[in-house]
């Protein structure tokens, strides 16, 4: 029996690592973090399965035309691999967007968080970690929470622009300092990754590699 192929199209940073599962099932896994790259590869190689984990309702939906970047890929999938089974992983808060996707395309399965495609395996909550004790006790603890409050002094639009720039620059410089290997950037073609490249160059990063 020929080896099956799965396209993992991952935008969510919380996606579980299924590499060992795919290996044990003798399934070849090709992972993409850029929709453009996934569509380009689709024209060369057609998958049997597609596993997608997205930030639905956002993406490149600037004009309100798309539900997410995923529906752009699914349009192409209908042409090049109409028999491929599509499995969508989604946070509960964004389930309404996947319902819209299901109206447009045939989805093999929708897996709302904290469930995953593996029976009995659940995602850890965002900004949490788990402790497994020798006694068998399992704890889940929050390590970060957002504290949002208005500044003590009134800020102009230019003040906000400068403040955001300063915070982003500090975040980038912090990670460059602690990195013990060369720093690179995975470019998706969007604003976020392009901004990181600019900030790294501004921070004096030399020989920056992009992929």
Question: Can you characterise this structure?
Answer:
With 211 residues, the chain is α/β, with parallel strands linked by helices. Helix content is 33%, strand content 20%. It has six helices and nine strands. It has helices spanning 19-24, 35-42, 70-80, 95-104, 157-178, 191-202; strands spanning 4-10, 27-32, 49-53, 85-90, 109-112, 128-132, 138-142, 184-185, 209-210. The strands form three sheets. The protein has a five-stranded parallel beta sheet. Strands 6-7 form a two-stranded antiparallel sheet. Helix 4 (95-104) links the parallel strand 4 (85-90) and strand 5. It is globular, with a radius of gyration of 20 Å. The two termini are 34 Å apart. Residues 59-65 have low confidence and may be disordered.
Short key terms for the protein model shown above:
single chain; 211 residues; alpha/beta; 5-stranded parallel sheet; two-stranded antiparallel sheet; 6 helices
Largest β-sheet summary: 5 strands, parallel
Q: What is the SS-derived class?
A: alpha/beta
The total beta strand count reads 9
Task: Enumerate the strands of the largest sheet in spatial order, edge to edge or round the barrel.
Answer: 2-1-3-4-5
What is the ordering of alpha helices and beta strands?
EHEHEHEHEEEHEHE
Rg from alpha-carbon coordinates: 20 Å
Beta-strand fraction estimate: 15-25%
Helix content: 25-40%
Average pLDDT level: 81
N- and C-termini, Cα separation? 34 Å
- Bulk shape: globular
**What's the number of helices?**
6
């Amino acid at each position: 029996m020929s080896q099956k192929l799965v396209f993992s199209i991952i935008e969510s940073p919380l996606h579980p690592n299924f590499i060992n599962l795919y290996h044990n099932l003798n399934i070849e896994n090709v992972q993409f973090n850029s929709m453009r790259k996934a569509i380009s590869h689709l024209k060369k190689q057609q998958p049997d399965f597609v596993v997608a984990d997205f930030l639905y309702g956002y993406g490149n939906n600037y004009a309100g035309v798309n539900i997410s970047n995923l529906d752009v890929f699914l349009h192409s999938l209908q042409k090049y691999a109409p028999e491929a089974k599509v499995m969508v992983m989604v946070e509960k808060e964004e389930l309404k967007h996947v319902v819209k996707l299901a109206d447009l395309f045939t989805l093999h399965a929708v897996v709302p968080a904290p469930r995953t495609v593996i029976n009995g395996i659940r995602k850890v909550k965002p900004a949490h970690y788990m402790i497994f004790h020798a006694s068998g006790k399992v704890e889940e603890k929050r390590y970060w929470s957002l504290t949002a409050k208005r500044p003590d002094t009134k800020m102009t639009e230019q003040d906000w622009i400068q403040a955001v720039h300063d915070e982003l620059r500090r975040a980038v410089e912090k990670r460059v300092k602690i990195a013990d290997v060369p720093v690179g950037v995975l470019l998706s073609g969007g604003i976020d990754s392009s901004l990181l490249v600019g900030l790294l160059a501004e921070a004096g990063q030399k020989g920056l590699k992009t992929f």
